[in-house]
Design a protein that fits this description.
31% of the residues lie in helices and 25% in strands. The protein has 298 residues and is α/β, with parallel strands linked by helices. The chain folds into 2 domains: 35 residues, no CATH class; 226 residues, 3-Layer(aba) Sandwich (Rossmann fold), CATH 3.40.50. Strand 11 and strand 12 form a beta hairpin. The longest helix has 13 residues. The chain starts with a helix and ends in a 5-residue tail after the last helix.
Length: 298
């Protein structure tokens, strides 16, 4: 019965009505009463808009619907920065939020999107299709790492919304089980970024976003030819995980570290921390590329 109720509330048509009523009544309701969106949203930016198909398990679209796109991580910086780039590698693309921003605001960019998890990849392909971006956004259902072949991938399942064929939990990964979550093992192709680009003929990127739940260091360590070209690397940096490894890899190549803090980029000597200060993303920027980020530096 509960699954049937969820299926009704989160049916795209019904959810659109209910969530917009919820939004209109927001000033009168407790802060915890926020119905997640399910269906197709139109996400408006300063530089254009795009359609985004989602369901209620997607944290990104919950944030964007209730607080607007510029409350989501570094969207404001990314929207401006991507206009000056020619090729964007979205590693851990999920349902394609940053891939679609890139293609929307920069009509000349080529986007290469990597997502090994089946649910997010389904939505990634759908979002490319409904925005008619097949010629510029190229999705690949492959995991990047420091090896080539196949490997076990831990894919998250959603115990609350069991009726869903595709969930959008953003915790699937190559590395570890997430406490309190059900994870299933699936076999996925794995490849280094250098090898992938050589084999497919995709261009080398001048900007990379990488969010792979704790394996970012493995990917970057074997992206030697890519890093030789000094792309800007936007990387998730979870507290007390792999900061020292990331710092060693990127520091050895002369990169500077800019933490994303309160909508600005704050240069730091080290991304290692004594306690969790809430920083979740670092922009690794080579001095050759620093002029591009100067407008965003605190």
């Amino acid at each position: 019965m509960k699954q049937l109720l969820y299926a009704i509330i989160y049916h795209p048509f019904i959810n659109r009505v209910v969530r917009n009523i919820n939004k209109a009544l927001m000033p009168l309701l407790p802060s915890g009463v926020r119905i997640p969106p399910s269906g197709t949203l139109t996400i408006g930016l300063k530089e254009g808009s795009f359609k985004f198909k989602t369901n209620q398990t997607n944290y990104t679209t919950q944030m964007v619907f209730w607080k607007g796109p510029y409350a989501m991580e570094y969207t404001a910086i990314f929207e401006q920065l991507i206009r000056h780039c020619t090729c964007f590698c979205d590693i851990g693309a999920h349902a394609g939020y940053y891939s679609l921003i890139a293609a929307t605001v920069n009509p000349n960019i080529r986007v290469v999107s990597f997502e090994p998890a089946s649910g997010p990849f389904h939505y990634l392909e759908e979002n490319i299709r409904i925005n008619h971006l097949e010629d510029r956004v190229h999705p690949y259902k492959v995991a990047l790492s420091n090896a080539n072949g196949t490997t076990e991938f831990l894919e998250a399942t959603h115990h609350k919304y069991r009726y869903l064929e595709h969930n959008l939990l953003a915790i699937s990964n190559l590395k570890e089980y997430k406490e309190g979550r059900t994870m299933k093992k699936v076999e996925v192709p794995v490849v280094t970024l250098d090898k992938f680009l050589h084999e497919t003929g995709e261009p080398f990127p001048d900007i990379i976003k990488i969010d792979t739940e704790g394996t970012e260091n493995l990917i970057l360590a074997e992206s030697k030819e890519v890093l030789d070209r000094k792309p800007i690397v936007i990387c998730e940096t979870l507290y007390d995980k792999i900061e020292s490894e990331l710092e060693e890899i990127m520091g050895a190549r002369g990169y500077h570290f800019y933490n994303h803090v309160n909508g600005k980029l704050l240069q730091v000597k080290s991304i290692q921390r004594q306690k969790d200060d809430g920083v979740r993303d670092c922009f690794f920027v080579h001095p050759a590329r620093e002029p591009l980020i100067l407008p965003f530096v605190a």
